Amino acid sequence: xxxxxxxxxxxxxxxxxxxxxTPGSPVRLQGWVHRRRELAALTxxxxxxxxxxxxxxxxxxxxxxxxxxxxxxxVEVVGTATANPQAPGGVEITDPVITAxxxxxxxxxxxxxxxxxxxxxxxxxxxxxxxxxHPAQRAKWELAAASLRGFRATLDAAGFTEIQTPKFVASATxxxxxxxxxxxxxxxxxxxxxxxxxxxxxxxxxxRVYEVGPVFRAEPHDTVRHLAEYVSLDAELGFVEDHxxxxxxxxxxxxxxxxxxxxxxxxxxxxxxxxxPVVPEEIPVLHFRDALALVxxxxxxxxxxxxxxxALGAWALEEHGSDFLAVEGYPMAKRPFYTHPQPxxxxxxxxxxxxxxxxxxxxxxxxxHRPSAYDEAIRxxxxxxxxxxxxxxxxxxxxxxxxxxxxxxxRWTARLVEATNVREVTLFPRDLHRLTP
Amino acid sequence: xxxxxxxxxxxxxxxxxxxxxTPGSPVRLQGWVHRRRELAALTxxxxxxxxxxxxxxxxxxxxxxxxxxxxxxxVEVVGTATANPQAPGGVEITDPVITAxxxxxxxxxxxxxxxxxxxxxxxxxxxxxxxxxHPAQRAKWELAAASLRGFRATLDAAGFTEIQTPKFVASATxxxxxxxxxxxxxxxxxxxxxxxxxxxxxxxxxxRVYEVGPVFRAEPHDTVRHLAEYVSLDAELGFVEDHxxxxxxxxxxxxxxxxxxxxxxxxxxxxxxxxxPVVPEEIPVLHFRDALALVxxxxxxxxxxxxxxxALGAWALEEHGSDFLAVEGYPMAKRPFYTHPQPxxxxxxxxxxxxxxxxxxxxxxxxxHRPSAYDEAIRxxxxxxxxxxxxxxxxxxxxxxxxxxxxxxxRWTARLVEATNVREVTLFPRDLHRLTP
Lengths: 437, 437
Prior knowledge:
Helix content of chain A: 25-40%
Structural class of chain A: alpha+beta
Largest sheet of chain A: 8 strands, mixed
Strand content of chain A: 25-35%
Number of domains of chain A: 2
Domain Aminoacyl-transfer RNA synthetases class-II family profile (chains A, B): 151-437
CATH architecture of the largest domain in chain A: 2-Layer Sandwich
InterPro entries (chains A, B): Aa-tRNA-synt_II, aa-tRNA-synth_II, aa-tRNA-synth_II/BPL/LPL, Asp-tRNA_synthase_2, Asp/Asn-tRNA-synth_IIb, NA-bd_OB-fold, NA-bd_OB_tRNA
Oligomer: homodimer
Shape of chain A: elongated
Number of strands of chain A: 16
Site (Important for tRNA non-discrimination) (chains A, B): 88
Protein name (chains A, B): Aspartate--tRNA(Asp/Asn) ligase
Distance between the termini of chain A: 28 Å
CATH class of the largest domain in chain A: Alpha Beta
Number of helices of chain A: 11
Enzyme class (chains A, B): ligase
């Protein structure tokens, strides 16, 4: 079944390392046929691997010109490293023996070899397994992957413990709306809308915890910002004074994500033209009340409208030279029941939204920690605390003042590359209409 | 709502850092009342934080002896660092001012201050938010968290890209059995039993990928080894010669997990008495056919029984001094349809199981990569390749020879601490009977 392969004349050379190959030495390249250009006297072959592109020159031999498989076929190329200032990295491969590693590839749905991918969003998504191969598309995910690495590294260094909490839950976390129901061995269960309850409970164990994982929202609206499933970067920490301590950790986390992007995805930044922000030492903070006044909204407005957020983003940039602005003190009425009120005026909350370039990126804040406060807050919603018995165990048995935040990975990456739709930066988006590929 | 707190006379001191405090200097500790011992002339208070335990000596003052809140209440202790060779770390806190950070804690369902936690499994699980606070219990998860860190660090260093793939899928991945059905906006969807199809597709993009995340199995059997939801550590890589290349990467990954345990969870190893293995430079490999012969099983046996795995584990230890043994070549008939056959004898497969101390820990192997091979394999199952159209796109458009593996996090940790039931090392297990806490 498997074709014989040429004996390994050399260990595999990655495209990015070709530039360091000694001219005249044998090299062995493996990758995809990125581009095949047949000219009168020779064929130019560009091979793509995980590190970049390499040029292979195929000349006529005694039996004519060797066949080159069509684009996207995987190949092994054994040849000679040859200096050529015109080749990428200054080195190309000559006198190649080309072996296909699979059957000739079908023509891709989009031309992956073109410098930019001019495909409609439905085409991109319908053919995601193939369209993600385009270097500029793939680079978007590299920004996301580097960000995950920076998120974890920052929190690891700050004494946080990674947790993995269940996605099957007995009742809705945030609200009964938008929750997916599962047939769980013949009875109903739900998919967690966030790890909120679990990360709080684990503060009781580890003090500082984080989790990276999928969250599920049965979002009935078809918008450019919402998905039925997305990746949530959650953190929670105990022994805080108030939400400002949480915001300080968030600042360091976002700075760590930016550092990781520069360190591990510099090439992806260049390819996507991503606008990677500079994170200020201290993120400017505005109280919700002052934010309303600043944008000229009525003082009894319960929330910030998208145009308000945009105006605040512009203000933060002009006034503080910052791409980030934290709005604190959101009205208690608009926050979940576990939100801690502002001690001197309980109409407001010790919570915040972090705006990044005028769009909400993160929600966070201080949570209630006294059992009596939970009892009161749950009854005030007209609910029975017994419904939350499992969750409330932690508080009855001693919890510290604590708080945390959640970053939506897709929203973050979308903002970096200025994608208007989060689907452009999601490997396989799930929404009202899409369940495949 | 929030009680006034003593002004911060000193930045917070963590219990583990108390040993370095200058005697006579002011310290500020925060944590849980781990143990309160009232003696005739004084009260000994042990405070627990994320780094360990600290001793506080409470003596009678002018107004009698200060009240000490009950165990598990969160407190702030401001006092003086004082040398005492009998105290943990040689330093205790004297002249303390103790402030409770919440209401007096209810008595825990188990005595968390006892050196070992003698609770039944149902008690442990029913009260998980509190029982995980026990240092020896908590240490089990620290082994898991360190392992995750080692898994990712090893693969990051080897050029792998982290991916996050959807848990909502349109059809079952591995088989129609044991799949959870979700009401997905009024139509059926399923929860991914593994990221298998997606990680393969992403090999077409990144060559080398990994994913850490939940997988879902509607496991109808109530066993000590199965959960309805568990954490799968998946990796997949392209341009392999065969499954032996995959096994070599797996070896490095397991070695990296072990290194991370020693580096980040040394205290947890001591507390749990975990038997952390030494990973041999090369993991011994036995063909399935020879494994059957070795344990004296009939040569047409299609799988290894648990007692066979135990016998093989004992053999590997005796013969090779290894806690690990890879059994390769499992019969094709018992492996999933995407499994690559053994080139010289297609009754066998290019797949393996990694046994760790006589129990299956990892399944891995080489996958098919030619579109014609998929077409044939799917038809041989009596299925229509059109059902797999989204998945098959990758192969039609060029895939390299590739393979991968999946490690079950809970099985790994259970083996380290010799837990007989995976539930003992799962933060909030989910099974046939359990959906809460």
